[in-house]
Amino acid sequence: MRDRSNISSELLPGTLEMLVLKILSMGPAHGYAIARELERISADVLRIGESSLYPALQRLLVNDWVEAEWGESELGRRARVYKITRAGRKRMAEEAEGFARITAAIFTVMEAS
Amino acid sequence: MNTWARLRNKLQFLFRRKRFERDMEEEMDFHRAMIEAEERRQGFSDAEASARARRKLGNLTMARESSREAWTIAWLDAFAKDLRLALRLWIRQPGFALVAMVTIALGVGASTAIFSVVYGVALKPLPFRDADRLVSLWTSVPNSGIDRVSVGAANWRDWREQNTTFTDISIVGPAQNFNVVGGGEPERVLAARLRSNMLPMLGVTPAIGRGFRPEEDQPGNDRVTLLSYEFWKKQFGSAPDIVGRTIYLSGLPYMIVGVMDRDFTWPGREFQLWIPATVNPDDFIRRPRSGFLAYGRLKPGITMEQAQQDLDAISTRLAQQYPATNAGLFGRISPLLSDTVRDVSGSLYVLLGAIGALLAIGCVNMVNLLIARSLMRRREIVVRMALGASRLRLVSHSLIELLPLLIVGGVGGVMAAYWCIHSMVPLLPASLPRVENIALSLPVLGFAVAVLFTIAIVVGVGPALDMWQVPLRVPSAERPARTRARDLLVIGQIAITLLLLVCAVLLMRSFLTVTKIDIGFNSERVLTAQMAIPRSKYGNDRAVSEYCRRLLERVRLVPGLESVAMVNRLPLSGLSLTSAIEFDGADPGISVNRDVEIRNASPEYFRTMQIPLLDGRSFTDQDTLNAPKVGIIDRQLADRVWPGINPIGRRFRFASGGSPGEWHTVVGVVGHIRHDRIEEDRRSQVYFSYQQLADGRPVLVAKTTGDPEAIIRPIVAAVHEVDPEQPLYDVRSLSAVVDRSLFGRWIQTVLLTAFAAIALLLASIGVYGVIAYAVGQRLREFGVRSALGAKPRDLALLVLAKGAVLIGIGAVSGLIAASFAVRALTAQVYGMSPIDFVSFAEATALLMLVALIACIVPARRATRVNPISALRCD
Whole-model pTM? Predict the structure, then answer.
């Protein structure tokens, strides 16, 4: 039994982007911090691979939903810090609504007798 | 979705690739460093931490790949990759690339250059409002064999007043030469006469000032003029206050009423001035049949047929009303544009067709080469498919491969066309109408692009289909279907080449025939110069004759001349003067000849031109106005009107109009000459003494002992000694005049011959390619045959037989095609039927010879097969 989801392949498409947006909506962060934060909040259930995280971030960048800037990190190295944009917040709200609708529907199906 | 933001970002990415890679690298490094730090915190050593971090990170390359994918436009990326691949490929195989690019450049360049002429001359609308409703009107008298002559003033007036289908009909009068004396050499300018309603009918207004007013069409009121833009600029320095000024034309004052636009060159670009077209009031009563060029504008919605019917109805009425002048006379209309270019559009389309055929042959060669190449690359293709390339991708790849060749070839072609247009247009014959319209205009560029697209489709479709059908295994032998396709292509090439060759040989033989025509005079060492004698200065016929006599007397003193003479129209110069002549005592049916060349000549004219004096005497200085009226006729006329009778002492006179002229007694008979065109013998000549029939536009002709060009300056100086204000123009040798009259035929023959030669070269390359390939395929078989005792000669014959079959089938199809196509040349072929056996035979023989030579090279290779190595190979 696995207790961790490999997000990119098993979740509904677009979910990873929604989660990243959500984490960024709580404050700017670099890639590593985003991955950590996701693990922490989901109590290690959702672990995100680098090979999914960075492409997802690029997709958000292309759509202008996040911005990236090189800044100083806690280690004193240059780190690329991502920040959610206004369009990104709007997008996140839409995605969350859609996701809620779908999960509700899935529950309904599963609880049908 | 954020379509716009995405597109913008992706496009920006195209220019920020390097930075993206750098950022990505650093970000990954940072990520790894963070993991390492984490591992170290958990107690691992530096080395262990680094190793664990790398393991945890997994496949970074893949992460980077898919990150990049987020930014790229998928198809553009694939396209760029294919393009890079193609460029590398062509750099590795420059031979084929070069041949293909040159073929494309030549094809696009030559066809675009020819099309620029076709478009500028024959297709571009005339620069008038609703130009497609403008027509020209002609007089035709079917019973007298008169097909197209100018329109008489009275008929014009009646057609204009009585029609219901024309908005208006206007006329252009005979051109008029004026001498303008400004600074330096006196200058001769040419003025066109336009009726006052002409400009409004064309829909043109002057750039400055006004057009002519109806009252200015009346004789006596007509001393007004419109200037051309160039003339205004040159003579008046573009003075803005030009309207109302006076200009002296041949000594008479004319008021300038306006300046036309720069692009107004109507009815021809040789005109610098326009003056009103007056009509002698007498002409409305006497009703001469010709005299003016008539143009009309159809009312909206009226067809050519309706207008023609309208005109026919009026003509019938006029014939009843004025039987003496209008019986059997009809008006004919034709669209103005096609009328303007009717003499040339046929040969232009022939050239365009020829260049198209040439282009087709060039394309076939490229297709053949591409097919051969794709066969050689079969292995590579199969490997690529096995590795997962989709057929669609392969097809698009094979098309993108051609793109660099097409682009370079296309750009080169347009540049070549530009160069051609700029260097060729000044060389085109002056008689070609609308030359000023030939340019690399937008429609011409569009044509170039269309040609390029056609080439792309023709050349690209073969390889693309090939990719689509390729089987997923390494082929052992070529499929017969493809060989057959290549054979067919070569057969087509041979056929088209033969077609071009037949046309070229026909034109060449016609040209040779034309140059052998006896034109009736000798153009060697004769200098000619045109003059216009102003009536304002030399008021009557006597003064003009006297002036001419003085000119001749003075010029005769110039050293280096054998003889000097004057005539009023030079043969083959494009100018003519005809009249109806009545011959005394001839049979009633032929006593009045309505279409005779009228010449006035000075005594030495026949000696200067070496026109043989067959009987009687030439004119003398005693044949003056006061002396008995004399004349000389040509042999053709003598034989026709007075057959079997000595013409000396017989009489003829002008027969036009109501009052016939005085009788002239024939004193001599001279040889007949070709006057209008070398190819066409249209009219006989009647000569008057230049002192008995004055003409204001004489031509000076001088037989020189040496190079005629060397005598130009002394002759001009001699003329200016008599009258310093007398301009001489069109000074050139008579042989140059003769050559110029043949220039159109010459250039067409040269171009078509050049096309045919290139076609022959391309087709032999095509034949060579196919035969050489076939030999390559059968080397093993030839080895076996040779081992079994076949002699080299047998092997060579085997190869030649294959070539002969292709050439034979191609030649037969070519001959059949040619027998239809040469009809387009009917107007250009001279002295033979377009289906001329000799031309067809010569072209076929030449083709066979060259094509067989192209087969001999591969055939020799077959004879040199070493059986051992042939059997071993593979």
Answer: 0.73
